[in-house]
Amino acid sequence: MHKVYHQIESVAGNVITVKADDVTYGELAQVTSNFGTSLAQVIRLNGSMVSLQVFAGSRGISTDANVRFLGHKMEIPFSDSLLGRVFTGSGVPRDKGPEITENKIAIGGPSVNPAKRIIPRNMVRTGIPMIDVFNTLVESQKLPIFSVAGEPYNPLLARIALQAEVDVIILGGMGLKHDDYLFFRDILEQNGALSRSVLFIHTAADPTVECLLVPDVSLAVAEQFALQNKRVLVLLTDMTNFADSLKEIAITMEQIPSNRGYPGDLYSQLASRYEKAVDFDTAGSITILAVTTMPGDDVTHPVPDNTGYITEGQFYLRNGRIEPFGSLSRLKQLVNNKTRKDHRQIMNTMIQLFAAYKETLEKRSMGFRMSEWDAKLLRYGERFENELMELSVNIPLEQALDLGWQIMADCFEPAETGIPTKLIDEFWPANRKAAVKA
Amino acid sequence: MGVNGNLMTVAFDNPISQNEVGYACRGDLRLKSEVIRIRGKNAEMQVFEDTSGLRVGDLVEFSSRLLTVDLGPGLLTKIYDGLQNPLPELAEQCGFFLQRGTYLPALDRKTVWEFTPAAKVGDVLRAGDSLGTVPEGIFKHRIMVPFRLQGALKVEEIAPKGSYDLNKTVAKLKDERGVAVDVTMVQSWPVKMPIKCYSERLRPEEPLTTKVRIVDTFFPVARGGTYCIPGPFGAGKTVLQQITSRYADVDIVIIAACGERAGEVVETLREFPELTDPRTGKSLMERTLIICNTSSMPVAAREASVYTAVTIAEYYRQMGLNVLLLADSTSRWAQALREMSGRLEEIPGEEAFPAYLESVIAAFYERGGVVRLNDGSTGSVTIGGTVSPAGGNFEEPVTQSTLKVVGAFHGLSRERSDARRFPAINPLDSWSKYKSVVDEKDVELARRMLRDGNEVNQMMKVIGEEGTSVDDFVVYLKSEYVDAVYLQQDAYHEIDAATPGDRQKYVFSVIVKILKTKMKFENKDSARKFFQQLMQVSKDWNRTAMEVPEFKAIEGRIEKMLAEVTDYA
Prior knowledge:
By secondary structure, chain A is α/β, with parallel strands linked by helices. Chain A has helices at 129-132, 153-163, 178-190, 208-227, 239-252, 266-274, 302-310, 332-335, 343-365, 372-389, 397-411, 414-417, 421-427, 429-437, and strands at 4-5, 8-12, 15-19, 28-33, 36-46, 49-54, 66-69, 75-77, 86-87, 104-106, 123-124, 137-138, 142-147, 168-176, 197-203, 231-237, 257-259, 262-263, 278-279, 285-293, 313-318, 321-322, 328-329.
């Protein structure tokens, strides 16, 4: 039988301190007071003083609350019966279904041995040209969507989830508005995807500490599915809320903040979650798409900044479109040589021309005379924005590439694009027609 | 006594030393840790593993050794974590995940090596002198007198030519005080101390060709030099390092993946065995060693990983080889220091980094260098480190402390990477103190052209294209041309990805000729059209191998185009 402690020494923020012996670091405890019961985790040992982080928050905890140590770390049940269900960050059902208790697994497990990883090699098709053509999503990639609050990032996330060919979808919601939670649930249900999804939802109204658990729980479950040879897509929204919860706890613990109040280990904390994305040698894979909202549209804010250094690229969502500048998929080179041989060239050339278009726009706004070349760029840029950048465009990659050639051919002479002569001969629409005729 | 994250406070009875290694024991689990501060009867130790499960009252065993690495034949081609655990062997034992508390020997003691003695009985040697050699892949691996020994040592016995495993004593030495020492083919060395068994340190002068044109021509690196690559995320730091690790003209490449993405290491890990080294015709892996402590692996071992890497680099330098150490990224290591410093509740410096950050970084880069060994041959360690400054702002402590101690600075810029101009090294801000592969005067000319072109471009933004003279506009076009066909390189193109020194000299001379040519154009549109065409032909030229006849043919076309616009007046 586990010992029960009654003497709470201090309560600060969501952290309580008790005097106790024989406690292990990282262990769980159950804290019971007049206002309810909650789980808590040991986060510091100092002699016989034990600091615990209370999952449900410290509100209402009395100095004579019962603290019972459970002798194990945070665990989550895992089985196929998780599919189609909704849980909170600490694994309690949020829908009306029964509690699942079988087959408990530890969360926040050790990292994958790099020698057991393989080079990602499968493209994830999304039907969005700005992704498929310019920044291809790759299985096992970890990619955030950088966005300002108010952009349609959740619908984008949902759309990618529904169109991507994966076996299991896991949604980790952190600090979600209740409406957004319902949006995800309904859209998955309407499209018949709920039966292959597991949702771990922390809403803005729930205790902060549970927010910290969401990524760990989601990824621990994802890992188990991946080990069963499943291709898993994990959606996390919004990681900035996760980082803010980290900040809150760190400040409570009187840690020295490093940058804008965030703890010095923000990078390591984010990395240990994102690095769970993996393509296992001889097993399945985990792909992570996460939303990171940028406070004040500032990419140098510590959260997007650290995230950018960890993830394999990023999508910038701005004005309802995926920005071609700044957006990047680091893994695209691994797959876009196998799609079609003009893929890379189209990708580079169209972006370079689009950059020139942006410069021309600037010049025009300052009232300079437009040269013949500028006029061509303006025509090109407008078509690029309307026919490829719009998020509503939904066409397969090959069609998008053909469209790219067509737009360029309508606006430029072949030499103006800087495309190698060999590809021009083969793909330039006029040449292609000539080849067909011959 | 106490646990806070990966910091553990321990009460001790017997004497211990700073940086001594200890093991926290919990049942069968033994977690490696290092003493980082001693206060009275309490020692504070950083644990190299996840500390959950430890409890107050658990014992800590001290090893009375500092953190060391094993040095001996068989290091090359290995993949280690920051504490020199071989990862593939760990995977065999533990499966997909890294189990904490599992430590394996760095070198397989049972492997047999073909030993050829070089020293004779009666020879008097010093630490670092060769006792014999074993073949290790394409190299002759020197078995040396252990570096820790001091003074003159007399060879009492030496094993004859034959095959031995690593446990076998190959030589018996006697030092000046008459103490006998048995020597095997493996020795260990504390990672935080530089190996100093050489006669003198030389100035790095010989260029190290990386086959990246902008580096070799404009911002060269010397053998034994140091350089850093700071840049915001997505600017191509890692790609640049990967290219360098493939094509650099050195004997051995050591990659220290420190706190970065695991995926990037995997690319190297899986691709290198299949790529051939153009210098030797053998697999690239034979000259490579990877130390990987990726971002999700224990933070404290990050610091160890860069030291492990540099110690192994120094070991191969002692054999008269040229070693290149690529550390990606030193910022992660600095952050590990910051995390630890925060837990120790030290008074923070700028951005909460510890005050000793600068001296730690300086000491690390100072371990690079060219040395003349005791036998007269030379060896070198070149260190290239990436820096990941927060927000891409170079005015931060890690970048600034690094810039003070390195010999070349390759600053990557967001503007260039957004414009897809790779490698995104900013040609206006970067610098190098080393010698270029091409004539310095020509480089100066090209650099001036880039600067002037940039000025014209800035001016055009204010006064517009119509307010710019045709001559100024041509300067701008010329600078864009150099940028497009020489500075930019396609890392994924078979031929364009690597430009050897000879080719750089040849191509650069043609480009300089173009820059020097006085050109005459009717108007700006015709000038622009001419340069667009010239650019396309030149890019095709870059993609053509130097040996095929087409190379000369394209060169002819460039010359013809040039002749058409030359102003002979």
